[in-house]
Design goal:
Blueprint: E1 19-26, H1 30-41, E2 46-49, E3 65-66, H2 74-81, H3 83-106, E4 118-121, H4 125-139, E5 145-148, E6 153-156, E7 160-161, H5 164-177, E8 181-183, E9 188-192, E10 195-198, E11 201-210, E12 225-236, E13 245-247, E14 252-256, E15 261-266, H6 284-296, E16 303-313, E17 320-323, E18 328-332, H7 338-353, H8 361-364
Parallel strand pairs: 1-2, 1-11, 2-8, 4-13, 11-18
Antiparallel strand pairs: 3-7, 4-6, 5-6, 9-10, 10-11, 12-15, 12-16, 13-14, 14-15, 17-18
Helix pairs in contact: 1-5, 1-7, 2-3, 3-7
Length: about 375
């Protein structure tokens, strides 16, 4: 059971009749909830349909890091996307950080938000050279970053961390205040132009937005692939980690919460063939390595929680955001970085649904 979902219960009704709205949003993870929030704030009537409960899938099972950029360091990102686009992607995730700060403050969302920065730690010599060069390059763009050659790491001072379930549920409550209607335990079986069909009713809407991330292919042709990520959490331990850490090109990560719990996740690269699909199960192979990390770092506290979540991977590690059919849009495929990409992505898709332009729409066009 995810640490964040321990003790959490559902609070919205199940759809039990036909309904209508300007926009039907399918999925109530960070992407769906934020999309509903932005659309409702702009005056649209919005219905959110969620098969489980708000933030019970990946959005309630992650590490809660709010990092700028993609999983890879900036040099690797520039190699992949070209430097101008890598900078645009970097700024896009900075937009999420701005939005989180502003929304948490405006709606007084109690989600243990902290801005202690994050450490990017090299796993080998080549990665260290890239991390150093990335820090130099981003520093020249005004990014607050310092390097520690002894630890072969760079500290990005502006990154954040939070309690993901309290954050997404707090934002859901804010969306409801703006007029959005949320239905939980309501699985969408099919979407057609202007309609979302569930077992107990049809929602008629001018636009449908699929915020179903790893599960999108069940509803529409999609290149998003389900990939598993695993974590564990301990009871309170003596202070050992000052800030979230991201190591080995993002495959290994850990943090310590303000109440002392140590969270460790990742190591998916050591079992890449097995760690795919929608099954949210932990495996001995991964969990043993997470435990070995605790021993290596002398974390002396019992493991209290172990869990797995399903991420949606895209073909190029960037999300697919935009129109996929006449009245159907999607916002998903975050490749393990939806807390960092989600709110800015939701703002983008909400703009497109309203017929507005967005300067970053081309970067994330689902047909790219
Ligand atoms: C172990 C782990 C650690 C991670 N750590 C981080 C991190 O530190 N920082 C970060 O940025 N990202 C992290 N991520 C990734 C992040 O959690 C995801 O990218 C993000 O939560 C995706 O949000 P989402 O709203 O797109 O998808 P989800 O949260 O998966 O939400 C999709 C929702 O759609 C619903 N749904 C699907 N199909 C239907 C249907 N037919 N009808 C109705 N509802 C449907 C699902 O029930 C689900 O609630 C991590 C992920 C994992 C698994």
């Amino acid at each position: 059971m995810s640490l964040w979902l321990d003790g959490a219960s559902r609070s919205y009704p199940t759809l039990d009749r036909d309904d209508s709205a300007d926009v039907a949003v399918v999925g109530a993870g960070i992407a769906g909830v934020a999309t509903a929030y932005f659309l409702a704030s702009a005056g649209a009537s919005v219905v959110v349909l969620e098969a489980r409960g708000v933030a019970e899938a990946a959005s309630g099972r992650n590490a809660g890091f709010l990092l700028a950029g993609v999983a890879e360091n900036f040099v690797a990102a520039a190699r992949r996307y070209g430097e101008p686009n890598a900078l645009r992607i970097w700024r896009f995730t900075r937009r999420t950080q701005f939005l989180v700060r502003a929304l948490v403050e405006e709606h007084r969302i109690d989600c243990a938000l902290r801005w202690n920065g994050s450490d990017q730690i090299a796993g080998d010599d080549e990665e260290w050279r890239e991390i150093e060069a990335s820090a130099r390059r981003l520093s020249s763009e005004g990014v607050a970053v310092s390097v520690d050659p002894a630890a072969r790491s760079a500290t990005y001072a502006e990154d954040g961390e939070l309690h993901p379930v309290r954050w997404v549920r707090g934002l859901a409550a804010a969306a409801v205040k703006k007029g959005a209607r949320i239905y939980e335990s309501t699985r969408v079986r099919a979407v057609a132009s202007g309609e979302a069909h569930t077992a107990s009713g049809v929602v008629h809407a001018s636009s449908v937005v699929l915020c179903t991330n790893a599960y999108t292919a069940h509803l529409a042709p999609s290149r998003v692939r389900p990939v598993r990520g695993q974590m564990l959490a301990t009871a309170a331990a003596a202070p050992v980690f000052a800030r979230p850490a991201y190591a080995h090109r993002g495959y290994r990560y850990w943090r310590q919460t303000s109440d002392g719990r140590v969270l460790v996740g990742g190591w998916r690269d050591t079992a890449a063939v097995e760690e795919v699909g929608e099954e949210e199960r932990t495996t001995d192979v991964i969990q043993k390595q997470l435990e070995a990390f605790l021993r290596e770092r002398h974390v002396d506290a019992a493991v209290t929680h172990r869990w797995a979540g399903t991420m949606g991977f895209s073909h190029d590690a960037l999300p697919y955001i935009g129109r996929i059919d006449n009245g159907t849009f999607m916002c998903g495929g975050f490749t393990g970085h939806g807390m960092a990409f989600g709110p800015a992505s939701a703002e983008l898709v909400a703009a497109l649904v309203r017929g507005a332009r967005h300067p970053d729409a081309d970067l994330f066009d689902p047909s790219r």
